[in-house]
Amino acid sequence: MVLHEQQQHLINTASAADFVRNGRDYEIIPCTLKESAPSWLWRAGISVLLLIIPLAYIVLISIIFYLNGREQSSFGDNVLQILQIASTLWPISFAAVMGPFLKTLALHQAEKGSSLGSLEFLLTSQTTVAAFKNLFARRNIQTWTVGITLAWCISPLGGQAAVRSLSLRPASTSLEIPAAYYPGGNVSDLNLLFETNDGMGFPFMGASAYASRISDMRSAVVASFFGPAVVVSHSNGSSDKFSTAVEALRGTQQAARLGQRDLWRNVRVCLRQQNGGYIKSLSYPNIFFDVFNDTATITDHLSSPLYPMTEPSSKLDLIVAGYCYESPQYPVKLRKCQISTSYIDIQVACTRLSSFSELNCQAERVRHTRDLPIAGNLTALSSSYVMRGIIWEMPFTMASFHEAEPSNLETYLKDPPLLMRRYEGGFLHARPGCFENVSSEVFEARLATALNTFIMAMYSVNILAGLEGTSSENRNKMWYNSTVKWTEYTANVYVLDKAWFSIWLASTLVLFTCAVIGIIIRCIIRAPDFLDSVGGLTRDSPYMDYPQGGSGMSGSDWLQVVKKMKVRICDVQPDDNIGKIALTTDIHGSKLDWERMYS
């Protein structure tokens, strides 16, 4: 074999003792493994330096744990900035530790004895993608190979965990505080309006109460219809002046905010419309109201001044009528509307930006109350006192003293944006009692809003305006006590995300463990590391014209000796019938041929 190789001129034994590098002669002299091996500092020094990477992350993790629950500070903000950088550097840092660890592990396994497949997996699994490729493409599926592949998955996951481990959030303190609401949802609560001691603010319980209290009710109604939000109430899509009205209110957000509460900061609830129809083809001020005189209905609803204690079997029909000045006959248009009550539960949320800011409350969620009808027959008009009072007050409270001029109520029913502009565009002479141009759905919504406004106005003005105070003591029977959850926000604090923090901590411990094991293995390995370079792997190849000796040198040390030598992949058996492809120092060897057979 040796003679054959010498005939091929692949080994130059005469020059084996001498080799020139940068003008200096290297003489490879046999020596002990301990003498040829680099110092401990050189062998394990790089691995020790790599230990700094996980230690730095451990220090950062300790700082994050320290900041948890503490108020915002410049130091904490700087840490958040460092976390942004750490998340970017994490994949690089992980590869810087994991890659050399796997190569060190491969050298250790080679010294103990291992399969080429295992060494190949350890040496080439230097990235997450490469690890998955080696696992599946080369079908090297074992417990330890799966473990290494899963360890590489920590590379992208750890970076995300780092940046998400700590965040800045407002601190909050929640407590239950007493609250009260008025009135309750039972019929018996409404009948308390008629009691002398609890109904002092009710205008329809007698002539004396009416004379004393009707001015309060009318004032509340007028004030409600002259609030800025009324001009956009139920006019979106049904009035050509809606956009102008919204612009006058300084935009849609301001208009929406004004619609969330009334003038007295009571929370408004969106109107829940039922069927959208009314009868308007049936054939006296401009407009008046009455109830349909049906014996059964009157008996169900209006047989007593008090509200009935049981649900009526039929719905109360409200008649809306008005003169239409469109012909000399002045015909009267009648509309019949069924009245129903919706029972709902409301979630009200209140916010206040600071101790001196206004408390802003609004309805966030509304749902149907269980076990109660969606469109109940019992209504606020199911009392003869209330019915007579309401249907009388509605057409006259805001009526014009001039004949055939629309009242504020009629203006609202026809076109809400014109409520503040009744003298523009000839609207005063636009048939005030006619609403043919208003769709049934829109008319229903506007009329329901107006009716609810009059019903609310009959309550005590102190209650309506929120002047009863904040104490829940010595209230009348119509008040109900409850509790609400109040949350106060203080200075921002740093909050630790336990899930992401645990992932990052586990990733860092894996990184630290790999670094420590790499140092230990480096200290116990005796074999020279010739797996880390091409020169080391080709040192004993019969097709490489290398100096003899140097088997105790590491791959990097051997590379310093032979790095000037040129190599080439070519046919090392050009004269045989079957060629052989190898890496050789014979750069003048035969080129590879597509048609030639190779062994």
What does this structure look like?
It is built from 20 helices and 12 strands. By secondary structure, it is α+β, with helices and mostly antiparallel strands. Among the domains are: 159 residues, no CATH class; 182 residues, no CATH class. The strands form 5 sheets. It has a 4-stranded antiparallel beta sheet. A two-stranded antiparallel sheet has the order 1-2. Strands 3-10 form a two-stranded antiparallel ribbon. β6 and β7 form a beta hairpin. α5 packs antiparallel against α6, α5 runs antiparallel to α8 and α8 crosses α18. The longest helix has 39 residues.
Rg of Cα set: 46 Å
- Low-confidence stretches at least 5 residues in length (pLDDT < 50)? 1-26, 273-284
Overall shape: it is elongated
Class derived from helix and strand content:
alpha+beta
Biggest beta sheet summary? 4 strands, antiparallel
Mean pLDDT: 76
Quaternary organisation: single chain
| Cross-sheet strand order for the largest sheet | 4-7-6-5
- The total of beta strands comes to 12
